[in-house]
Write a structure and sequence with these properties.
heterodimer; A: 114 residues; seven-stranded mixed β-sheet; 11 strands; 51% strand; globular; B: mainly beta; five-stranded antiparallel β-sheet; 0% helix
Chain lengths: 114, 112
């Protein structure tokens, strides 16, 4: 069953700790994306990667870091520098670099930092 | 960069009525405009999309119109049903090698 897997579904961390959110896809998609969703704010782009070993900052990259060592994986690290990390995080992918293709989303990870 | 504005933020209609959600974009180079539906606690799902070489596209009760001159596009849902209740997002892309930029969403409530 092809798709995007985000884990865990719920994540709790103490303030000041870094945390890494997992995103794995078996769709053979080249491009992968991380969005953050807050109530009333829509989906805001954090980082995206068109190919392995390359990624670009989105609109709200501060306090986040990513890596793309494998085509299938695009983990997101929320660092202690992120001022308001509590949010719903969505990972997505697109086949090739076809920007005009539908995004395939994972089920998301809800991160709560206290 | 691209900026997408979406209105209204909430919309309440009676079952059977039509619903219209409007979006404007800032970058005239944008050429791909999808709409996503997100039900409570679930991932966003594509419901319809339109490319800049087309002015209108329809899929059963859902249609999207695009006005490139005015830089706005709209989602039209006819004969609304309670299961249409969800958050709807518009988005725009300026092209190859870039990412989709989303509007802030519209919460549609359809009451029976």
């Amino acid at each position: 069953d092809g798709g995007i897997t985000q884990s865990p579904k719920y994540l709790f961390r103490k303030e000041g700790q870094n945390v890494t959110l997992s995103c794995e896809q078996n769709l053979n998609h080249d491009a992968m994306y991380w969005y953050r969703q807050d109530p009333g704010q829509g989906l805001r782009l954090i980082y995206y990667s068109q190919i392995v070993n390359d990624f670009q900052k989105g609109d709200i990259a501060e306090g986040y870091s990513v890596s793309r060592e494998k085509k299938e994986s695009f983990p997101l690290t929320v660092t202690s520098a992120q001022k308001n990390p509590t949010a719903f995080y969505l990972c997505a992918s697109i086949s090739g670099s076809r920007y005009n293709s539908p995004l395939h989303f994972g089920n998301g990870t809800r991160l709560t930092v206290t | 960069g691209e900026n997408v504005e979406q209105h209204p933020s909430t919309l309440s209609v009676q079952e059977g009525d039509s619903a219209v959600i409007k979006c404007t974009y800032s970058d005239s180079a944008s050429n791909y405009f999808p709409w996503y539906k997100q039900e409570l606690g679930k991932r966003p799902q594509l419901i319809i999309d339109i490319r800049s070489n087309v002015g209108e596209k329809k899929d059963q009760r859902i249609a999207v119109t695009l006005n490139k001159t005015a830089k706005h596009f709209s989602l039209h849902i006819t004969e609304t049903q309670p299961e249409d209740s969800a958050v709807y997002f518009c988005a725009a892309s300026i092209g190859e090698g870039t990412a989709l930029i989303f509007g802030k969403g519209t919460t549609l409530s359809v009451s029976s």
